[in-house]
């Protein structure tokens, strides 16, 4: 079947995510120093990350709802230090605002404009970036985030839900993302085409990935546009 829609991953596909998270965590830490110093004095960024990793095992929801994971941890540590629970809401708002200040790869805006003229676009993401705040929402007919949907990639249901919203068969949809297991294999197992966004020019060498055969490989969105 001809490709009638492209679904895109967000983090490390449309922007590099590691510097975004580092910045957001730094901004949150500075906010805590100013507004809840007793917490900031007892927990730095690394110590909060360690506790967050431990918390993941306590509730299956945290496997896909990263917003709830961070929010729950903040409520816990605030409560332990006698800080009002609503402060955790304020803290998450600070973190989320910084989380949405991304630096798009240079090809993203022009390529989305070009792709939008050819076919339907959508996103499926395990993160909780806000496309409206980032300024990209108008490009996409459907955007599904794991923390709202109730499961995360590579679960087939999240890919199929996007296809259903687009009113297309999975075989008519190409999903493009940077992660071979979550994105490429996940999409293919749901019946979609799986494209690998390989911006770093990586080779498939990890034994866990050797069996994965992307339907296409791209160094950027311009190559995706040409491939289509």
From TrEMBL:
Span of the signal peptide:
none
The cross-references to InterPro entries, in alphabetical order and at most eight, read: HAD-like_sf (IPR036412), HAD-SF_hydro_IA (IPR006439), HAD_sf (IPR023214), S-2-haloacid_dehalogenase (IPR051540)
Tell whether Hydrolase is among the UniProt keywords: yes
Task: Write out the GO MF terms.
Answer: hydrolase activity
The alphabetical list of record keywords is:
Hydrolase
**SUPFAM superfamilies in the record, alphabetically?**
HAD-like
Q: Which domain of life is it from?
A: Bacteria
* Pfam families xref list: Hydrolase
This protein is called what? HAD family hydrolase
Record organism: Undibacterium umbellatum
